[in-house]
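Good morning,

Attaching, inline, the backbone tokens for the sequence recovery test we're adding to the shared suite. The designed sequence is right after.
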């Protein structure tokens, strides 16, 4: 049996410009990242905003097992099948996080003959979106500490900061740390910690934003801590929202790639479903809906978590609705639910 990597190497990838042509886009609509990856320009998103919306199909699952239940594989396979029978379909998925990729779960680009490609690029650094989000999150953290160090006009209580740093790595040693050691010139000692990048509020905000103005506004409304009087402190009070948003100017653009059968695929954003919405960006889903008859997307984790958030939050902020749902229920997961063969 061939491995996923061996299968991906056997596929004849088409240039991403050819993939774009299948959904009515040209080279001038794209920012190219090599031959097989691209971002869709904001000007194109505005141009297609009047196109009719296609049908949205959500793939979810019963409570998953540690290895995952195949939502991504089913999503890709279904989109490929729709194209095979003559329908126009695009699959929209989340970007993988390096933490799970190098953990028990492994990659998140599908499997077998239902993968998004180039698989190794998507599973690793891809177009740099996660790195941009990491930089934006940690720049905000540094600016907050700098504000406290120099004058602290807002009287922020260092003991009540809620904004953590992030890193796209599973590293339990960094979850609880002490920073600012080494004397007065190195800052002030305080407890801090690292979350994983998909858990950053900036990741969730990016995937809920329709444009740069909205992204900047949402960043400005982030609560980063509390004052000595117990009042919440927001980013717009510090005046940092513009600088943070500028780091995300390219990360907000949806990524276009392809599947093993050269079906167009948008892979963009990656918030976890246990602490955020667990879906790809609404911008990617809306773009796909404007460019095809059927869009297949997935909601992370189990139906009672990711799918509920998809209906209650993602559809609301994206101003679209789900037309059909596919529920993945594997034998392995059923056994864990107590169903014996």
């Amino acid at each position: 049996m061939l491995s996923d990597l061996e299968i991906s190497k056997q596929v004849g990838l088409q240039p991403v410009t050819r993939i774009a042509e299948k959904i009515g886009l040209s080279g001038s609509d794209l920012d190219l990242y090599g031959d097989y990856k691209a971002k869709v320009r904001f000007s194109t998103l505005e141009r297609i905003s009047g196109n009719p919306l296609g049908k949205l199909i959500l793939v979810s699952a019963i409570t998953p097992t540690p290895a995952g239940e195949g939502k991504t594989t089913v999503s890709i396979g279904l989109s490929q099948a729709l194209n095979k029978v003559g329908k126009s379909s695009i699959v929209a998925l989340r970007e993988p996080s390096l933490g799970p990729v190098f953990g028990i779960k492994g990659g998140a680009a599908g499997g077998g003959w239902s993968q998004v490609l180039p698989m190794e690029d998507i599973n690793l650094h891809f177009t740099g979106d996660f790195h941009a989000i990491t930089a934006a999150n940690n720049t905000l953290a540094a600016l907050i500490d700098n504000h406290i160090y120099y004058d602290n006009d807002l009287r922020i209580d260092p003991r009540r900061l809620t904004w953590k740093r992030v890193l796209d790595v599973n590293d339990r040693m960094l979850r609880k740390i002490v920073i600012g050691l080494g004397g007065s010139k190195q800052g002030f000692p305080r407890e801090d910690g690292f979350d994983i990048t998909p858990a950053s509020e900036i990741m969730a905000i990016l995937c809920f934003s329709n444009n740069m103005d909205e992204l900047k506004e949402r960043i400005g409304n982030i609560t980063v801590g509390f004052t000595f009087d117990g009042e919440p402190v927001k980013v717009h009070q510090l005046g940092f929202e513009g600088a943070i948003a500028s780091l995300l100017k390219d990360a907000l653009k949806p990524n276009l790639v392809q599947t093993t059968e050269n079906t167009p695929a948008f892979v963009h954003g990656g918030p976890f479903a246990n602490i955020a919405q667990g879906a790809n960006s609404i911008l990617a889903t809306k773009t796909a809906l404007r460019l095809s008859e059927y869009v297949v997307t997935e909601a992370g984790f189990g139906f009672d978590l990711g799918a509920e958030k998809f209906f209650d939050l993602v559809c609301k902020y994206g101003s679209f609705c789900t037309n059909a749902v596919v529920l993945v229920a594997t034998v392995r997961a059923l056994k864990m639910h107590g169903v014996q063969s």
